[in-house]
């Protein structure tokens, strides 16, 4: 199980391969469910030029750890990986990677969905959008 | 005594609304998270949808605080 907060851009598929290669479940998994969330260049009908992702250091890691442990207790999965960006980002930048490995597909699908939904409702991250040189706005709630 | 205080943090839009990133209150002057809010913000009204934590776990505003606690107030989370 790995939780990582990155303050610089990351390449999710490379991170996924590196983690999988170093993890101890080679030969045991038949399913890998992967979710990558990326920054759009639009939101709520407006163009978005850039975004600042703020978080609560310490609590963020605590809740990502908590939801990862919950997923392992609820489903028969082998391992999970969560990587989330913070700081200044641009459209097309990956924001989040969630990956789950299991012997069979159902557990990996269900646990990865659970991790993403719980991350979005419980992990203390906040997005501030830069709409233009002069205009910023906080995203008020997740959809 | 350095731990006779409660540390307070504000995040995101709430930090801008309150005008503070961090504060401290004397433990003897507050019982609950709501008391901490009132003391730190000089009785600003508590926005309805605000989330709060004590020592990095979610609580409600009636939760009892003690010396050395870290209390945080923040808007609904928007990660992912």
Instruction: Report the β-strand fraction of chain B as a percent range.
Output: 25-35%
Full CATH superfamily name of chain A: Molybdopterin biosynthesis MoaE subunit
Report the total helices of chain B.
Answer: 2
Q: Write down the CATH topology of chain B.
A: Ubiquitin-like (UB roll)
Order of helices and strands of chain B: EHEHEEE
Helical region count of chain A? Answer: 3
Biggest β-sheet strands, sense, barrel of chain A: 4 strands, mixed
Radius of gyration from the alpha-carbon trace of chain A, in angstroms: 16 Å
Terminal Cα span of chain B: 41 Å
Largest β sheet strand count, sense and barrel closure of chain B? 5 strands, mixed
Which bin fits the share of residues in helices of chain A? 25-40%
Shape of chain A: elongated
Identify the strand order in the major beta sheet of chain A.
1-6-8-2
Low-confidence stretches of chain B: none
Distance between the termini of chain A: 27 Å
Tell me the name of the CATH homologous superfamily of chain B: Beta-grasp domain
**Which protein chains make the most extensive interface, counting residues with beta carbons within 8 Å of the other chain's beta carbons?**
A-B, 27 and 17 residues
